[in-house]
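Technical note accompanying the year-one report. For the benefit of new consortium partners, we illustrate the data format agreed upon in the data management plan: each record pairs a sequence with a structure-token string. No post-processing was applied to the example shown here.
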Amino acid sequence: MNQKQLIECVPNFSEGRDMSVIKQITDVIEQVEGVKLLDVDPGKATNRTVVTFVGEPEAVIEAAFQAMKKAIEVIDMSKHQGEHPRMGATDVCPLIPIANITMEEVAEYAHRLAKRAGEELQFPIFMYESAATKPERKNLATIRAGEYEGFPDKIKQAEWKPDYGPATFHARAGVTAVGARDFLIAYNVNLNTTSTRRANSVAFDIREKGRIKREGNPITGTVVKDEQGNPVRTPGTCKAVKAIGWYIEEYGVAQISMNITDISATPLHKAFDECEKSAIRRGMRVTGSELVGLVPLKVMLEAGRFFLRKQNRSLGVSEAELIKIAVKSMGLDELGPFDPDKKIIEYQLAADESNPLIEMNLQQFASETASESPAPGGGSIAAYVGALGASLATMVANLSSHKRGWDDRWEEFSNWAEKGQQMKSNLLRLVDEDTRAFNAIIDAVRLPKGTAEEKKARKEAMQAATKNAIEVPFRVMQEAFECFELCKVMAAIGNPNSVSDAGVGALCARAAVRGAYLNVQINVGDLEDKNYVNEMLAKGRALVEASEAQEKEIMELVESKL
């Protein structure tokens, strides 16, 4: 099942004092369907506002374009002053991959945004970071050198021809840099000391640029220099990490304050782990940490898996459990509560989505199914039964990974449990998706049908909704069929005390496949595309037959062990 691609956009606008101007920009962002405004951070001294919003790629680049357009209308760079280096009304506009999208794909979206803005708004745009067209333009500071005041002359130079837009200076808009970069995490690690100097020593151990190398005494010794006379540095243990030690009076502790600029080079858990190692060597202890701002879900899940792996424990636990392990292992709740719904980007977005069925308790779900409403119906129930089958087989895998005497096999069963968790998640998502597919048909039926044009639009909407109502239960069939492999392996080599659970899981999977196929069958009757209908029915029958064979094989295996 395809998952949403998510990107984040963090444009910096050259206005941080007039909130009415800032609001005009954020208003056009919020008007774009499919994006969520996460943060607006104005700075008076810098006269600059950092805005953060997130969504699917098409919606994000539309919102970014509209924000750039509005910024030119409400900001006049010829009158701008501020402490922060700047060159344009929209000074920078980075796009950042969050979920299910590569950096290369994000860079393509950055170029689409820049091309449109340059052509339609007629001001110069340069590409930077992973979207840069030349190595020398990768660094934002290089592009921005000379700032707004220097660009009238700079842009005339052949080597500074913009990537998009005219090679002429736009006095009101200035110049904008559009880029693709990794997510930046602002992260602080707490120490059991009040000494800034000792916190700095840990910061120097872990940050990429490390510390200046000295002969003899590491503090007072002579600085070692290279052939050009530049100080030689001993690099730290964490790439793409900037760090410094400081004392926080509010908490009464010293911290290592970090910016992690590339989470693929240094994941959050590695930064924490390296701080811990350095602190112990220096007679200190890490007591906890704090995240400043939001974080992608994958960062927390990777951290949870890292700490479970250190314990030789199965990684195939629920998403909530992985996050809990990450929070407790890194002490992210030491200085205040850590609320995943507020700190994790994807959960912020999910708060706007309606998944009424899987958010119910068991009694509510059963009562809703038994009500007079036609939904949820057999398709949603088939998906849920399939999720239960995947859950049972996953339980067997997790129990097997912890079985006494099988310690050397924990990773083998952990891998199976991780697969099972993914199957469960996919099927749970389809519980509500099946009901939404049914509701879409009802919505299409209710469309007006007075004029010939309305009749045509209604018919097209009904056909499209019906096709989706076929494809959703067919995906249930496919996802549920995947469960048989896990059930079979767990019945064959899993914890023998739980072999019956693997059998029940297989029965659930078979019920899910057969039940979902009934939904495919009942919906194809209303579709006019008979070639498509015949294809889906043939594929469905094949899956039903294969599932019956799988169930029979697994049940014979289970019963032989009872």
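Partners are asked to follow this layout when depositing records. The CA atoms of residues 103 and 318 lie 27 Å apart.
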